[in-house]
């Protein structure tokens, strides 16, 4: 893998190195890193890939706060019964 | 695949007194063929450095600190309050990792029962929700290992087949995503990911764990975690593009 700040990348080398490069990029935002501006300009398909993968990662952060259904309403009753029965054994 | 100490239980990531480190469940799940140990008690309050990102992503919830203290002192109403505050996120985490409503509900129950037993060991060195989520993740991983033993080999469970792997030719021109992918579309796409990809994606991109933490949980290399995450994102891109294309075709009819 060439050092990105020393050698020129081919598009293929760049795409292969993406897992590591994403990890090193500030905030996972490779497209904002000026060191990669040139390769992203020269490899439009890699630029689109980077853009899409960043977009997916950004959207994923929104999933932390759930919007969907929670557990069924009787789950607390089950937990309470388990706690009570174990407490009474102890 | 090897099990050592099959009675090892995930006590919320907290190693119970008297449970030696040797009594841990060991299993090979690494894609690269390197044996990975999933340790049942990988996170203790004694030796875990809080991760700053997790405090940012898991800010304290109103009423949580008070409920926590009262629940530690045995107040059942306070524990009920903790359940109410955290049930949706714990359930959703289980559902995303397992992809099955019934199992997610069972694991939510397990998580809160473990929480009840181990609440006293929480010392506030990380955000409570971070601690609770790690407890939950450990339980789910343990569940997956057990399930893997009973149903299919865990390697198949964790590592997707070639068919499931993202298809990509270097240099190929793919249509880009429209930029209008919303959380519902992404949630659906995540649900269709092969289990191994889904686990790493949920742990890293949704829950905010670092690769070194994921590697520790799954006992694989950080490189493997990075690689799995990248493949998961590529696969999601593929699924989302297919869905967008299908929607366009539907609209044009």
Q: Overview of this structure, please?
A:
- The complex is a heterodimer of chains A (90) and B (253).
- Chain A has helices at 11-16, 18-24, 37-42, 44-61, 75-89.
- With 90 residues, chain A is mainly alpha-helical.
- With 253 residues, chain B is mainly α.
- The model of chain B is unreliable at 1-55 and 149-157 (pLDDT under 50).
- At the A-B interface, helix 1, helix 2, helix 4 and helix 5 of A face helix 3, helix 4, helix 7, helix 8 and helix 10 of B.
Number of contiguous helices of chain A: 5
Structural class of chain A: mainly alpha
Task: Give Rg of chain B in angstroms.
Answer: 19 Å
Structural class of chain B: mainly alpha
Q: Mind summarizing the main beta sheet of chain A?
A: none
Low-pLDDT segments, ≥5 res of chain A = none
Count every helix of chain B, treating DSSP H or I runs of 4 or more residues as helices. Answer: 10
Oligomer: heterodimer
Number of strand segments of chain B:
0
- DSSP strand content of chain B: under 5%
- Report helical residue fraction of chain A: 55-70%
Radius of gyration of chain A: 23 Å
Tell me which protein chains meet in the greatest interface and how many residues each side has: A-B, 38 and 48 residues
By DSSP, the count of extended strands of chain A is: 0
Overall body shape of chain A: rod-shaped
Amount of helix of chain B = 55-70%
Largest sheet of chain B: none
The succession of helices and strands of chain A, N to C, reads: HHHHH
Q: Report, as a whole number of angstroms, the end-to-end distance of chain A.
A: 60 Å
Mean pLDDT of chain B: 73
